[in-house]
Design brief:
The complex is a heterotrimer.
Chain A (H helix, E strand, L loop, with lengths): L4 H14 L11 E7 L5 H20 L8 E7 L4 H13 L5 E4 L3 H14 L3 E3 L16 E3 L4 H12 L6 E5 L4 H17 L4 E6 L8 H10 L4 E4 L3 H13 L7 E8 L1 H4 L11 E4 L8 H14 L5 H20 L4 H8 L3 E2 L8 E2 L11 E9 L2 E10 L8 H7 L4
Parallel strand pairs in A: 1-2, 1-3, 3-4, 4-5, 6-7, 6-8, 8-9, 9-10
Antiparallel strand pairs in A: 10-13, 11-12, 13-14
Chain B lengths: L2 E10 L2 E11 L4 E5 L6 H9 L6 E6 L2 E2 L5 H6 L2 E4 L11 H12 L16 H10 L14 H12 L6 E5 L7 H18 L2 E5 L3 H7 L2 E6 L2 E6 L1 H6 L1 H10 L7
Parallel strand pairs in B: 3-8, 3-9, 6-7, 7-8
Antiparallel strand pairs in B: 1-2, 1-4, 4-5, 9-10
Chain C lengths: L1 H32 L6 H18 L4 H25 L11 H21 L15 E4 L2 E4 H23 L1 H11 L1 H7 L3 H21 L11 H16 L4 H21 L7 H12 L27 H16 L6 H24 L10 H18 L3 H23 L4 H21 L1 H4 L5 E2 L10 H24 L1 H11 L1 H6 L4 H27 L1 E2 L6 H14 L6 H19 L3 H15 L3 H13 L1
Antiparallel strand pairs in C: 1-2, 3-4
Helix pairs in contact in C: 1-5, 1-6, 1-8, 1-9, 1-10, 2-3, 2-4, 2-8, 2-9, 3-8, 4-24, 5-6, 6-7, 9-10, 9-11, 11-16, 13-18, 13-21, 13-22, 13-23, 14-15, 14-16, 14-21, 15-16, 15-21, 18-19, 18-21, 19-21, 22-23, 22-25, 23-24
The chains are: A alpha/beta, B alpha/beta, C mainly alpha.
Chain lengths: ~400, ~250, ~600
């Protein structure tokens, strides 16, 4: 057995830094462990983290929670669920956080949720969209804020069903989110309008779309309507090739998330017009709550908020509301407080509720059409689609979620 | 008869490299295979050691046809080899190189448990003793002088008690004094142990001093065969060698 | 119908051109320097970002646009030269593939630097002046810029051909590509040659990136998105062969364009499937030639000295610490220690084929991941307990080793490594797409240890016993006849065969052993994490294994162990403490590469030898 010097050094170092986990007094700040793919998804998570800090500072400036400050320990999972699980262990055991939060990628969210379940900790998932998080693989310890893939598809189907289009094509990134979005869209649209036909589907690899070939393949099937799930760089490339090749002319396009500034802003003056999208009309949304939120954010960061900012802000609001209600950081008490919790959203709309039945929040999304204004894409004719109206009935939810 | 080769042929894409070579080598005998560049020596050699499969003809070793068998099978039937450019295991010591051949001979290559270091070195040392390399047994092959590497190769080649030794240009790249020493060593071992030796060689001095018989190839065909004196006198051999200008040692 | 197919084919040609530009630079660099340049994708990304900056800053119009594109490519060329002069030039004499470690450090640094300079949001560049619109081809609209790209590929190929056949410099480059040893003999200034080749390759990468500006958005994922595919093209074409790369790009472009019409979900794996098929049929790519020697001739592998008393003492001390200290540590420390123990075995398993076997693997995570899936699938579908799962893990990985290894060990060098990558990607995409069985990218949850092993300390000891045990077994095999036979095949395949060794069988069995050992590590990892995801066998994990082995020193027996400890430790520390952890990790890697070009253990050995 030959293990040379560095191992011993490493072990000694380990003993020094790891053997003495920080112990915090009961009446110190309440710590939140926030795990996200900061380095892998900076476009979404930089505005997210900004708003998180803003919300936290506001809460602390207003005296905290019963006199206790809140504090957040951020960890970057780099997009790998296995790293997220390790961070979760560190946050719980060393940093003594009261609860876990975050998650952008669905698989990271599921991994942390399972960790939470196993270690009996509260996990407030902010971003991950997968339906499995609260349904098929839901557990007692996990709550999710954002409207899920199912909910957003349901919102879009409502609009798509009103269109004359019968022949539909779909394009979605080739992973669980894209696949289930397409599955729900097909199922819900067929239910709403039994005579629709799906004539083509494309599943480009995430982040590596071959946009020319994909657009051509869709055009070749000559659909009347297109359901798009691509986002980020894939969306940009898809839109460029699609508009040059005339794919979107005389066709209806229904598109998930495209109205979010994260994805609409980079398109600049090439943003498509007339797409039916879910998103966030940050500029025109002038509810009282949102105006305050937007101006505070702009003052502090010198840019407008993105949807990620709202998600972070609302996550903190929910956690704060929960902590006020629970009166402590004991996990069971916190879970009880989360179930049925209502809290305000930065959208400034009606209060949002964390449903007791499946731990899904009723936060909604805006649905509208894209348009060009002053050389950039915006949402017009939008309306708020309240999440509670786009969830299956309680009976159905019970069959979707493991009971007991 | 240790080795009997009957009428082997080999062509590459229509070019006849070897066309009808027959030869035989007896135990204790040294047969040299010579000829100008492109005469087909290497092709011939590679058919004997298994790297090439003859198009037709028979290669019989101790009564068994070995034509077309892979080199490792031919080795197991008792054929040792040395290479024109030495091939040894550079990351191992001289002793370990020989031990590898012994372990292979004993079918112990898939042993994952017993350290090689604890093997009994007696047999390997005896082989090194025979080639005069015992004193350097512990040195890595990567740092040896070229002449010494040739001796190590010889020791490796002897490890499976071969009936036949195939030596491709055994003295290539060596100083003249070393050449003589190596060939004398080889000849001594062959005669004492009754090993048949077949070698190719460029250095005619080495060939005429050490070979018992010589086979001369030209353009893939044998043109002369016999004892050194006979071959030296053969007019066709002289013509072939004069034609290529490689006459040193013949006259 | 016909017009659609025609335009589909044209779309494929445009993609092929883009791909060829990047691949051409990579293949030129590899051909001469034999460097597996991971940073090539970063150069491509920088080309795109720089051209975005230049084109948006310069006045609009032809000069502003095309000038910006060309200047960006030239700046990338200069960056490439800097990388070569400051980093790579100092480590050409290091063991094979070691330079890969250095270029990986560059990748990490560039990722964070690009984020700092250009921000997180995707950037959309302007379209090319004069090429904004589309033309009608048989009534179907086709973008002008795509037509332009279709022409760029052959033009660049032609220019490169002229450069390589009509100039003295080009002749030298071709000679160096054909036979590296000859260059020194010809008295060519090797330094100058390498630097200029790196410049050319980097310019091509930068140009490839810059020309994407009117086509795609510029983003921080561009580097990793392109690098794997560029390597695939280079390898399918035959390493160092420009016409080969062109052919391969055409092949991939067309297969991709038409493939998605029939199998829309094939996008994930198509390139790797093609590579696997090509390499199985043609072990040196379409137009590649077998290398002069299987193993890099300039590297003489050093012997494996038996452990000195000092090393033995340190080893026992480390083991004693690993056994005695954990009961006094917190839970998280146990989690980290468990992970480190697993990584030690994972690295040791790769080293087994890479060090003594001389076969690099770019896809070793496949066996790690299949081990994890072996355990998780049993747990999910048959509710099997951990004990059974841990037994199934090496079985599943070993079975894959039997099948994949049978193909891989026939090849040599980078071809073999890329074939392992192809199989790993096929395994990965199976786990990713076979949702009904594997849960897809959402993975398999609830893979927790049996009750007795639930306490972190117990699980740590279980992992320690298995990992140290299997690692020691591998080590024992290295010093036993089997390990010697493996090294024999690496040192001199000719001699090995001539003393009765069946090199293929020996390497195959070694490959299977390595797969089994990685499977044990993967199984332990699954139960340590409680869940299994396709990321366990994705490229980054394979890269991790390579980095650990190279960092520790591939030419030493203890290297992988030390490398795994150091890498896992540094990675964990940095990821936890810094926002810019990639920048720091990249810098640390680059520094280690420069100061310890033989790896950590290699350096330590030299130090003790010098003291003697």
């Amino acid at each position: 057995m030959t293990i040379a010097l560095p191992r011993r050094a490493a072990l000694l170092g380990a003993a020094a830094t790891l053997a003495t986990p920080a112990v915090h007094a009961q009446e110190g700040p309440i710590r939140i462990g926030e795990i996200n793919s900061y380095s892998a998804q900076p476009a979404f998570l930089t505005p997210y983290r900004n708003a998180w800090m803003m919300a936290q500072d506001e809460v602390n400036a207003a005296g905290g929670i019963n006199g206790r400050r809140i504090e957040t320990v951020f960890r970057d999972d780099g997009g790998r669920p296995e790293d997220a699980v390790r961070h979760a262990g560190e946050l719980v055991n060393n940093e003594r956080v009261a609860l876990l939060s975050g998650g952008f990628l669905s698989n990271v969210g599921l991994a942390v949720a399972d960790f939470a379940n196993q270690n009996r900790r509260l996990y407030v998932a902010s971003e991950p969209l997968t339906d499995a998080l609260v349904w098929a693989r839901g557990n007692r310890f996990t709550f999710r804020l954002r409207p899920s893939t199912y909910m957003q598809c349901a919102m879009l189907v409502e609009e798509a069903a009103k269109l004359p289009a019968r022949r539909w094509a779909t394009v979605a990134p080739n992973y669980e989110y894209g696949q289930s979005a397409v599955r729900w869209f097909k199922e819900l649209l067929t239910r709403a309008k039994p005579d629709v036909q799906f004539v083509a589907e494309q599943f480009p690899a995430l982040g590596r779309i071959d946009a020319g070939a994909t657009v051509q393949a869709l055009a070749g099937a000559n659909p009347e309507g297109i359901f798009n799930v691509t986002f980020g760089a894939d969306l940009t490339n898809f839109v460029r090739q699609g508009s040059t090749r005339g794919l979107f002319e005389r066709r209806s396009v229904v598109s998930l998330l495209t109205g979010e500034p994260e994805y609409l802003d980079p398109l600049g003056d090439e943003a498509p017009e007339g797409w039916i999208v879910t998103g966030y009309p940050w500029e025109e949304l002038n509810t009282e709550g949102h105006t305050r939120f937007r101006e505070n954010y702009r003052r502090r960061f010198n840019t407008h908020p993105r949807l990620g900012s709202v998600v972070a802000y609302d996550t903190v609001s929910a956690i704060v509301g929960m902590l006020r209600k629970s009166g402590g950081t004991e996990t069971d008490a916190m879970i009880e407080a989360m179930r049925g919790l209502t809290f305000p959203t930065a959208f400034g709309e009606a209060e949002v509720e964390f449903r007791a039945i499946d731990h899904q929040s009723t936060l909604g999304a805006y649905i509208g059409r894209t348009a060009l204004r002053r050389g950039r894409g915006v949402m017009v004719d939008w309306r708020y689609a309240d999440g509670r109206n786009y969830l299956p009935t309680d009976e159905v939810v019970r069959t979707l979620r493991p009971q007991g | 008869m240790t080795l009997l080769v009957e009428d082997i042929h080999k062509s590459f894409g229509g070019v006849q490299a070897v066309a009808g070579v027959s030869l035989s080598v007896q135990a204790g005998e040294l047969l040299a295979l010579i000829g100008p560049n492109g005469a087909g020596k290497s092709t011939c050699f590679n058919m004997l050691n298994g790297q090439l499969r003859p198009d037709r003809g028979r290669i019989v070793l101790k009564g068994q046809d070995i034509a077309g068998l892979p080199p490792r099978r031919i080795w197991r039937m008792g054929v040792g080899r040395t290479f024109q450019i030495t091939a040894t295991f550079a990351s191992m010591s001289v002793l370990e190189n020989v031990q590898m051949a012994l372990l292979s001979h004993a079918h112990r290559l898939f042993d994952i448990w017993n350290p090689v270091r604890r093997e009994d070195p007696a047999r390997a040392m005896a082989l090194l003793e025979r080639v005069g390399m015992a004193a350097q047994a512990g040195r890595p092959c990567g740092v040896l002088a070229y002449g010494d590497l040739k001796r190590v190769e010889l020791a490796i080649a002897l490890a499976n008690d071969p009936a036949l030794l195939l030596m491709d240009e055994p003295t290539a790249g060596m100083a003249p004094s070393e050449r003589v020493a190596l060939m004398e060593l080889t000849a001594g071992i062959a005669r004492n142990s009754g090993i048949a030796v077949l070698f190719t060689e460029h250095d005619m001095e080495v060939v005429f001093a050490h070979a018992d018989r010589i086979l001369v190839l030209d353009r893939g065909r044998p043109i002369a065969e016999g004892e050194p004196a006979q071959v030296r006198a053969d007019p066709r051999v002289r013509e072939v060698y004069l034609g290529t200008g490689a006459t040193h040692g013949i006259a | 119908m016909f017009e659609n197919l025609l335009v589909q084919g044209l779309s494929g040609l445009a993609s092929a051109s883009s791909l060829f530009l990047v691949a051409s630079g990579l293949t030129v660099i590899f051909g001469v320097t034999r460097i597996v340049n991971f940073a090539h994708g970063s150069l491509y990304m920088m080309g795109a970002y720089l051209s975005w900056t230049l084109v948006t800053a310069l006045p609009r119009g032809h000069l502003g646009f095309w000038g910006g594109v060309l200047v960006a490519a030239l700046i990338v060329g200069v960056i490439g030269v800097l990388i070569e002069v400051l980093l790579l030039r100092r480590i050409y004499k290091a063991p094979e593939l070691f330079q890969l470690l250095g270029t990986f450090g560059v990748v990490l640094i560039v990722q964070d630097v690009a984020l700092m300079i250009w921000g997180p949001q995707d950037l959309l560049g302007p379209r090319a002046p004069g090429l904004r619109g589309a033309v009608e081809i048989l009534g179907v609209r086709f973008p002008l810029y795509e037509l332009f790209l279709i022409a760029v590929g052959p033009v660049v190929l032609g220019l490169l051909w002229l450069l390589f056949h009509r100039t003295r410099w080009g002749t030298t480059v071709r000679a160096a590509t054909a036979d590296r040893e000859m260059v020194g003999a010809l008295g060519v200034n090797q330094r100058m040659l390498f630097t200029t080749v790196f410049f050319l390759g980097s310019v091509l990468a930068g140009l490839g990136g810059a020309l994407q500006l009117p086509r795609e958005s510029v983003n921080l994922q561009m580097d990793l998105a392109i690098i794997a595919e560029a390597f695939v093209v280079v390898v399918i074409g035959g390493l160092g062969s420009l016409p080969g790369a062109f052919l391969a790009a055409l092949l991939l472009g067309q297969l991709q364009a038409f493939g998605i019409l029939i199998f829309p979900k094939i996008t994930l794996v198509l390139a790797f499937l093609v590579m696997a098929v090509v390499l199985v049929v043609r072990p040196h790519g379409l137009l590649g030639r077998p290398p002069a020697s299987a193993h890099a001739a300039h590297v003489v592998e050093p012997p494996y000295p038996p452990a000195t008393p000092l090393v033995r003492y340190l080893g026992f001390a480390a083991l004693a610490l690993a056994v005695l200290v954990p009961p006094f540590m917190g839970e998280f420390a146990l989690i980290v220690f468990t992970e480190i123990a697993i990584m030690v075995l994972f690295a040791a398993s790769l080293h087994f084929i890479m060090g003594p076997g001389g076969m690099a693997s770019f896809g070793h995570a496949a066996y790690f991941g299949l081990g994890a899936y072996g355990a998780a699938l049993l747990a999910k579908h048959f509710a099997a307990p951990m004990e059974l799962g841990l037994f199934a893990a090496p079985l599943m990985a070993g079975f894959a080793g039997v099948v994949f290894g049978w193909f891989c060990v026939r090849l040599s060098g980078v071809y073999a490594a890329m074939l392992t990558l192809a199989f790993a990607q096929i395994a990965w995409s199976t786990a990713f797409q076979w949702v009904e069985v594997t849960g897809g990218d959402n993975g398999i949850l609830g893979v927790w240890p049996s009750a007795w092993a639930q306490p972190k300390l117990v699980y740590y000891y279980l992992a320690l016993v298995l990992c140290v045990g299997v690692t020691l077994l591998l080590r024992r095999a290295i010093f036993a006849p089997f390990g010697y036979a493996l090294r024999a095949g690496r040192d001199s395949p000719l001699r090995a065969e001539a003393i009765g060794m069946d090199g293929f069988r020996i390497r195959w069995v070694a490959f299977i052993f390595a797969a089994i050992a990685a499977g044990v590590a993967g199984g332990l990892f699954a139960y340590a994490k409680g869940s299994v995801f396709p990321t366990y066998m994705a490229i980054p994990r394979s890269v991790d294994a390579l980095l650990m082995v190279l960092l520790g020193g591939v030419q030493t027996v203890s290297g992988p162990i030390v490398g795994a400890l150091a890498y896992t430790w540094i990675h964990e520390q940095l990821m936890r403490s810094f926002d810019l952890w990639r920048l720091f990790l990249g810098s640390v890697i680059v520094a280690l590469v420069l100061f310890f070009p033989q790896g950590l253990v290699g350096a330590a050995q030299r130090l003790t030898e010098r003291r003697k």
